[in-house]
Amino acid sequence: MSTGCSQSPSTLYQGLTAVHSTISWSASFYPQPWMNWQRRSTLGLAIDFPTLNVLGFVCYTISTCSFLYSPTIRAQYAARHPASPEPTVRLNDVAFGVHATIMVLLIYSQFFKWPWYFKVSSRQRASGPVLGIVGGSLVAIAAVAILVLRRAGWQQHDPLDWAWLDVIYTLGYVKLTCTFVKYIPQAWVNYKRKSTQGWSILQILFDLTGGILSLLQLVIDASLQGDWSGITGNPLKLGLSNISIAFDVIFIVQHYLLYPGHADLSIEAEDDSEQPLLAH
């Protein structure tokens, strides 16, 4: 006898994948601030990383909330993707974004004297190019929003023209940019110091697991809809997963193969290594 609450294996697997990816990604935010707390220091962590994380996850949270809760954004998405009108953004994506925003703000705050009083290098400050990315991203978002207002005003009539959906997509591309760039300074810090001391590998292992499961969830969502354009219709989630996985592999190679030791570096050496890395 069948019941009304029975689920197909694909749907059940989809739900389990979504939950596990959210748990893994959410867990990845705890090892680094805990390591900083234990060491009473942020040395070994490139400040460009949390700087871009703050901007990126604020944009990510606004984007996912809009796809899930905004009737205007959902209607415009459906008009542009008639074969699969339902956005592949789920409640777990919103929950992850809100939680991630809180955690990256916490990590960023550890570079300030109050209330942590951690050891922070005098050279641990955001580099010029990273500040340029932050400023340029805000200008780009504002420019697209102004263009939409001038073309359509607050009342959107043609979703195929410039629409508020394009502003949300811009937020997504800012998040992708932050995700790609934020890893480069940290990879360079590890290379220059020939050590991953001060950089939690546990967060990378959680992040890799979450990235793989998130990518799998996106594929399952598209397959259940019977339209693979649902994957490209959510470029934020697709790009975020692939970029994260690629850099996670780099960090794993650095930690376990290239620099497996945890040398007790002097404060002077660590202080020198924290020079802004993208300044040149």
TrEMBL record:
Report the GO terms under cellular component.
fungal-type vacuole; vacuolar membrane
| SMART domains reported for this sequence | CTNS
Q: Which keywords does this chain's UniProt record carry?
A: Lysosome, Membrane, Repeat, Symport, Transmembrane, Transmembrane helix, Transport
Reaction(s) the record says it catalyses: L-cystine(out) + H(+)(out) = L-cystine(in) + H(+)(in)
Membrane topology, from the record: Multi-pass membrane protein
Superkingdom: Eukaryota
* Subcellular location(s) of the protein: Lysosome membrane
Q: Which Pfam families match?
A: PQ-loop (PF04193)
TM segments?
Answer: 43-69, 89-109, 130-150, 201-220
GO MF entries = L-cystine transmembrane transporter activity; symporter activity
Q: Which InterPro entries match?
A: LC_transporter, PQ-loop_rpt
Please report which protein family the annotation says this sequence is part of: Belongs to the cystinosin family.
Name the UniProt record assigns to this protein:
Cystinosin
